[in-house]
Amino acid sequence: MRTVRFQVADMHCAACVMRLEGLEDELEGVERVEASYHRQQMEVTFDEARLPLEAITAAAAKMGYPIQLIE
Amino acid sequence: MESLSFANLLVLFITGLTTGGLSCLAVQGGLLASSLSHQVERDVAASPRRSAQLAAPIAGFLLAKLAAYTLLGFLLGALGSVFQMTPLTRAVLMLAVGVFMIGNALRLLNVHPIFRFFNLEPPKFLTRYIRRKARSSSEGLLAPVFLGALTVFIPCGVTQTMMALAVGAGSPWAGAAILFAFTLGTSPVFFAVAFLTTQLGARLEKNFRIFVAAVTLILGLVTVDAGLNLAGAPFAVSRLWQANSAAPTAAAALADENAPLVLEALNDGYAPEVLMAKAGQPLELHVVTNNTRSCSRAFVIPALKVEKLLPATGTEIIQIPPQTAGTVMPFTCSMGMYGGQIRFQ
């Protein structure tokens, strides 16, 4: 399991938080997503063996949120 | 506020129709779409009856949502009525609501990260539960109805400001009416979007954000002004407007010193807006209603701590103690929406 943090652009309400956290149900291999509207960040815990990091970025971009890895 | 006029409710309905629907789409529209997805998958054959089959769960979702928000408005209004002691406390509440709205508008405009605190985030366990429920919901009418009612726990920004307004209304029925009218307004947009993807919902919201912010900002400024009005503050915008418009008809009323002051409470305000009165002597103010239905019936003179619910038709007599020359005594309805002043000379 690996936990990474992303900066999320274009998050403009609590609804976006809910949408982004929906990734934990949509992406196979994602364990947990914690998004914060106030910090404009999202923390993702996922299984590297099952899911490449790029798949998370791509899935978020598809939802309309460009994300950038910060740690 | 004992009675909301039809015009007030129409404004709320249109707010729901325009800004509310769009701003709530991203999350609640998504819920609706995912609760319907099973239905859509099942009817993948796309028979001509598909839309009719989808209409029932969408209507179920929206009706449950409407009922839940109306109940919420009732409870918030009841909460507001507990604190509704004096016009001044209500004025403070209105000011807070107005500031909340303006903060939300500035948040939408991305003016500064600090304004993000004006958006209240529902607790994580709740959003997770609702989201999972939407995904796992089986076909049938029960799931959409249940989810529709649950949306009450995940209000979007504009809805939160409407909830604040319901508290400010200070009566359970007014609170219920406010959220009913607003939620009803959001329904057509939801109904339309139920056939589209959640993706489009998010895009729509982004593109209309400036518009949503502008409307929220205007609502916020109007509410702050109403609060100032209700507090009897001389610098409320609507009051400054009155101060600059000395009504010539009102001056004539001063000619007969012993005649009572007569004020008409109409559906859209008070006439005349400026009353001239003689200083240094007690006066009678006759407030006349004639089939008046709007909130102008809840008549307040903040300076005298007078608060009367006028009859729909009739005359209420209010005794005014002697005032010094130059005194300006504002009067208003209990929501601070309509008002005027008595000038003593």
TrEMBL record, chain A:
Pfam families: HMA
Recorded superkingdom: Bacteria
Transmembrane portions of the chain: none
InterPro entries the record matches: HMA_dom (IPR006121), HMA_dom_sf (IPR036163), MerP/CopZ (IPR001802)
Gene3D superfamilies: 3.30.70.100
GO MF assignments: metal ion binding
Domain HMA: 2-68
SUPFAM superfamilies recorded: HMA, heavy metal-associated domain
Name the record gives this protein: Copper chaperone
Organism of provenance: Levilinea saccharolytica
Automatic annotation (TrEMBL), chain B:
Keyword terms, alphabetized: Membrane, Transmembrane, Transmembrane helix
TM ranges: 6-33, 54-79, 91-109, 141-167, 173-196, 208-228
Alphabetical list of InterPro entries matching this protein: Cupredoxin, EfeO_Cupredoxin, UreH-like_TM_dom
EfeO-type cupredoxin-like domain mapped to chain residues: 250-341
Domain Urease accessory protein UreH-like transmembrane: 12-221
Pfam families per the UniProt record, alphabetical: Cupredoxin_1 (PF13473), DsbD_2 (PF13386)
Classification via PANTHER family: HEAVY METAL TRANSPORTER (PTHR42208:SF1), HEAVY METAL TRANSPORTER-RELATED (PTHR42208)
The name this protein goes by in its record: Uncharacterized conserved protein
